[in-house]
Design brief:
nine-stranded mixed beta sheet; 40% helix; 11 strands; 12 helices; two-stranded antiparallel sheet
């Protein structure tokens, strides 16, 4: 696939507010609506903070995190409903689907599966509108840089950095909400209650970055047997959280990274802050155990290794040599085996694995993209 030309076309034509977008070449997208059954109590930290910072920290997400739209890419020639799907899970602190449009497009073209682009809680179009106030975020970020000597603070990561520093409980809470949202979505699909899918549809997963953590938890916990035999391709992911280095201007800053890691080492409890529908409560313990195993690499080593061994045949993991957020070493220290590393020569990064480059480097980017997504398509088809 001609990555750069296709990406430009998709960005131009994609519209999350539209009902349907026809991209040509046999791929169409439609927009679906989802309502979350999960709820939680906002946390008000006991710290000397400005009102603007407190507003970010106590955000409950009622303006978009609980009822939202998500796109599904599918084969334009499909007659009726599909019985094969891929759930595409994105990375941390993402605000736009632009990077993923070409990923979904390729997967549809090469697997015939419909690709569900589902946003993590408080990400993408589930992000509170006020977090997109660039002027406010720049101002708070500048203050943070000058007065706290924080590295890698930026307007892009300010909101999530504040939450991870002062209310790190929101990391497992948001993850739990996303977990139960995905359980609800996949239950609707499997029971034939989704407008685009037949009953008993096969739902495989393409997971990138922190999305890979979600995929691992879903396969290990296997809530209501929804993921028995389903597969997951983990791209630039698969490591335990403490092995990751999210200290980046586009993810979270240095202080947020430090505080989150310290929090995950503690014997914390957040269940009293969450309101989970009674019928879903039996699905929480195994998912929570899986999250704990995959949060602290130096804890629960035996349990984590046994859990990952149990899904070894269901996952395929590929990392990139230039990735400093979820490095090859981090993946190896968590998975030990059953992964591969590709080391392109072009200047890429975790956040931008397929940068827009010209000439020979541009050709290598496109070749690398096609190699990775061909491998993913073969595994997930």
């Amino acid at each position: 696939m001609e990555l750069f030309a296709t990406s430009a076309l998709l960005k131009k034509q994609f519209n999350l507010s539209a009902g349907t977008s026809d991209f040509g070449e046999g791929v169409t997208s439609t927009i679906c609506t989802f309502s979350s059954d999960f709820d939680f109590s906002p946390i008000r930290p006991d710290a000397p903070l400005s009102q603007e910072e407190l507003n970010i920290l106590t955000e409950n997400g009622k303006d978009g995190n609980f009822t939202f739209r998500y796109p599904v890419f599918y084969d334009s020639q499909l007659k009726g409903k599909n019985n094969k799907a891929i759930l595409l899970l994105h990375g941390l602190n993402e605000r736009t689907w632009e990077k993923y449009l070409s990923w979904a497009y390729f997967l549809v073209k090469h697997t015939g599966r419909s690709v569900i682009m589902f946003p993590i809680a408080f990400h993408m179009n589930r992000t509170p509108q006020k977090w997109g106030n660039a002027r406010l975020m720049h101002s708070l970020s500048d203050y943070r840089r000058r007065n706290k000597n924080v590295q890698n603070t930026s307007f892009a990561n300010l909101a999530l950095s504040l939450r991870m520093e002062y209310t790190p409980q929101m990391f497992p809470i948001s993850g739990t909400q996303t977990y139960f949202d995905l359980v609800k979505l996949c239950t609707e699909i499997k029971e034939g209650r989704h407008e685009l899918f037949e009953a008993n549809t096969s739902v495989n997963i393409f997971a990138y970055s922190i999305g890979a953590l979600l995929a691992e938890i879903l396969l290990i916990a296997n809530p209501a047997s929804l993921f028995s035999g389903e597969r997951a391709f983990l791209f630039c992911g698969g490591a335990s959280v403490d092995k990751m280095n999210p200290n980046s201007k586009s993810i979270i800053d240095s202080e947020a990274t430090r505080q989150l890691n310290e929090f995950l080492k503690c014997n914390y409890k957040v269940s009293d802050l969450m309101r989970i529908p009674e019928q879903n409560m039996p699905l929480l313990p195994k998912a929570w155990d899986s999250f704990r195993y995959l949060s602290c690499g130096d804890c629960c080593t035996r349990e984590r290794d046994l859990a990952l061994a149990g899904i070894k045949g269901q996952i395929k993991t590929l990392g990139l040599g230039f990735d400093s957020v979820i490095s090859p070493r981090a993946i190896e220290e968590t998975l030990h085996s059953n992964f591969s590393i590709l080391s392109p020569r072009y200047p890429g990064s975790h956040e931008n694995p397929f940068p827009f480059l010209k000439d020979e480097q541009g050709r290598e980017v496109e070749d690398t993209f096609n190699t990775i997504f061909s491998e993913a398509s073969e595994f997930l088809a």
